[in-house]
Amino acid sequence: MSSSPITQPPVAPGVPVTRGTDNESDAAFESSHESPPENLESSGGSYGEHTQDQADSDDTGYVYHPAQEHADDDDEDDGDEDYDNEDEHDDEDEHDDEDDEDDHDYFDGSGGLEFELVIDELAPGAAHDDEDDGWDDNQPGNALQRRILQIIRGGGGGRARLGSRQLLSLIQGHDIDDIDDDDDDYWEPPRRMRPGYAPAFPKVPSEQGRKLMESGVFGTFDLREPDSKRKRLTRRLLDRELGLGNRTEQKTNLALMAQQMIPSSKPEMVIHYDDPVCCGQFSDDGNFFYACVKDFKVRMYDTSNPYNWTHYKTVRYPFGQWTLTDADLSPDNKWLAYTSLTSQVCFAPTDPNDTGDPYTLDLAGGMVRQGWRDSFPIFSIRFSGDGRTLVAGTGADSIVVYDIERREPLYNVEGHDNDVNAVCFADKQSPHILYSGSDDCTIKVWDTRSMSSRREAGAFVGHMEGLTYIDSKGDGRYILSNGKDQSMKLWDLRMAMSTADVERLDATKPTASRRYQYDYRFAEYQDHMWRPHPHDNSLVTFRGHKVQRTLIRCHFSPPGSTNSRYVYSGSYDGFVYVWNLDATIAAKIDVKSVTEGLRIPGYTPAARRREWMTLVRDVGWHPNVPLLVASSWNGPTMNAGTATLHSYNENDVDEAEPSMGLSVNEKIQPDEGLFNWRGPRGYEDDDADDFF
Hints:
Radius of gyration: 29 Å
Largest sheet: 5 strands, mixed
Low-confidence stretches: 1-32, 35-135, 149-160, 180-190, 367-373, 679-692
Structural class: alpha+beta
Number of strands: 33
Strand order of the largest sheet: 28-29-30-3-31
Distance between the termini: 48 Å
Mean pLDDT: 76
Shape: globular
């Protein structure tokens, strides 16, 4: 592996590089992913960090819905003693009840503020009746009502739909005669799920995925042993010890052994943090693990013994905003680059003897984009295979390629129509081909040798919502992506759509012209919202997990410990999902149940009046042993975090040391406020019922 060019603190003469400099120019930035919106009312409620306490509080902000408006109007009308015509009042109440039913039909319960305004046309002659009853154009509200009636009659139907600009103008009391909204501008709620309705999700098991499994690209596949007749692990161990078979058969036996040792839900150790864990990964050799926490600190652990960790260092991101977003190790493991919602990347040495503060490089490099001044948020950061280049995905809809040796950005390409949430290189050994995934629902392929043209080399389409993460297999061919449409997809670089084909087919139109709004931070994604993309060029689609609240990550399983057999992802429901390549679920690792109540003595949902919640945001699989680490958000309000170690075990107990289920703090030390998975610390108590 080539060495990193960062052999000394990254400071160059004449270049403005600082140690822990405050990024004041970006202090007002508020991310659409990891930070609260400025206007909570317009975003449909409080930000994703909102808790159940807020939901139950009397001070919770009122969420508007048109059906509720009718109910409020009815209450006001019932209390109006000055209303003269009681018969007319009753007729209007009946009419309001019908409107209530109609509005409830369109309400999908997602908590959003979007709605469709439907206005019923008055029956012929109704206007004259109103005039006989004393209609006064000068009376407050009557002019607006007359304008609405005029619009309806002009439409020639009993129901009318207003465009978004027309509706806004109408609410503001302006004339809307000269405003012409296109058909795609008005919002239409998703269709209701009919009884027995089942979306046409991709077939499982996937035929294409099965072909990939049998091809040997994703691990050994023994056609002589169908899944229903696979040897037990104990039998394979016996075959290995007896040395049965020739060299090829012995190698196949070892590969199939690795495939069968998927980590279980029973934890080896639970590491507790006072804030949510954003991401955590092993180094390529497995001797190092880092955990990025929302408190702007990165904890580093020596994992040369994967079952007996040692904490040796904690570094901080100076003047970060809201949270840490991503981190990556240099190819030689000497430097860790980590980011927050600013344009500055921090570099911290991984050497335990180097106790200096981290250094920062500003990827903005003086580049100015309209609306972002001289800074932008960074959602994703990656080293190139030779360690000489950084690539970043930003909230300015751009991909930044930065030359570390020259301390300047090479390219800053606005290649997407929305935030770039993830970037990665196609090949760990090559700095040329890279991918970018965005909230515009596309993955784009770039060649750094031709990025000066600011045009991508190809694209993938198929996700119906924005992407949260992409991961490369490292072979320059396959890529994995997670999407807010609750699906994970596998792609082949050879099937990428050319830029000319994207333009000719208008391949982005199905996602650019959606007639609903889904905010994954707050709402549940309903099955009836999903539609197959007409130009989907993915190989396999994986479903079952939940991609909500935050940018949840997915990965290929490592070749050493799993024989490259699986793909896996975190999930909002507190599980780690492991799939075979044919989209069938190979395992579900329950992180929620093993972390529930370990920080709260005597916790039960009934006693605390809060449901315990766990969100698995990232998962790191050890490259050499059957062990993975789930980085999670935990607690009744998900304001704490854990890193849980799960290894292959067939029993709940283990005679080895340290014992299973041990709860420790961030420095791998006992803590009186923590409880073991099988009982309170310091007691030989196997009765876990006292704590669950």
